Amino acid sequence: MNKVILVGNLTRDPELITTNNGVSLCKFTLAVQRRFTGNDGEREADFINCIAFNKNAENIAKYTKKGSQ
């Protein structure tokens, strides 16, 4: 199993969905700033689509909103 820790800000409010089987699913996108600057001196960001399941999904939807870290 691989483990990744990303630190960024939500680009929009998380979207909570419950599947037909009763599994909670939360979709959200993180904007993660790069550590280095580009040729123009500006820091760029990567936008990473994420999906959380079950209790993690419910907690993300309940306690975060657009702009949350």
Q: Can you walk me through this structure?
A:
With 69 residues, the protein is mostly beta strands. It is 14% helix and 45% strand. The chain is built from one helix and four strands. Strands 1, 2, 3 and 4 form a four-stranded antiparallel β-sheet that branches. A hairpin with a 5-residue loop joins strand 3 and strand 4 (43-53). The protein is elongated. The chain starts with 8 loop residues before the first strand and ends in a 6-residue tail after the last helix.
Task: Give the arrangement of secondary structure elements.
Layout: E1 9-10, E2 15-18, E3 24-37, E4 43-53, H1 54-63
Antiparallel strand pairs: 1-3, 2-3, 3-4
Quick recap:
The chain has one helix at 54-63; strands spanning 9-10, 15-18, 24-37, 43-53. A hairpin with a 5-residue loop joins strand 2 (15-18) and strand 3. With 69 residues, the chain is mainly beta.
List keywords for this structure.
four-stranded antiparallel sheet, 69 residues
Number of helices: 1
Q: What is the terminal-to-terminal distance? A: 25 Å
Largest sheet: 4 strands, antiparallel
Structural class, judged by helices and strands? Answer: mainly beta
